């Protein structure tokens, strides 16, 4: 039982550290895939003029 508790603690700590590294250290540009075009008006009649 003692081994199981240690294993669960190590897994929990590894998941927490992995989450923090993913959240704060890895740039978001690695996971973005394709670039989004955030223009307010596009080509054609968008109704914003």
Which key terms come to mind for this protein?
single chain, about 50 residues, mainly alpha, 1 helix, about 0% strand, rod-shaped
Tell me about this structure.
The protein is mostly helical and 49 residues long. The protein contains one helix and no strands. It is rod-shaped, with a radius of gyration of 22 Å. The model has no long low-confidence stretch (mean pLDDT 81).
Low-confidence stretches: none
Give the helix tally: 1
Shape: rod-shaped
Question: Roughly what percent helix?
Answer: 40-55%
Strand content: under 5%
Order of helices and strands: H
Q: How many distinct beta strands?
A: 0
**Classification by helices and strands:** mainly alpha
- Distance separating the two termini: 69 Å
Using only C-alpha atoms, the radius of gyration works out to 22 Å
Tell me about the biggest sheet?
Answer: none
Average pLDDT figure:
81
């Amino acid at each position: 039982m003692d081994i199981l508790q240690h294993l669960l603690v190590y897994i929990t700590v590894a998941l927490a550290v992995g989450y923090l590294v993913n959240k704060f250290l890895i740039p978001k540009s690695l996971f973005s895939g394709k670039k989004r075009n955030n223009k307010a008006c596009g080509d054609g009649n968008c109704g914003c003029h």
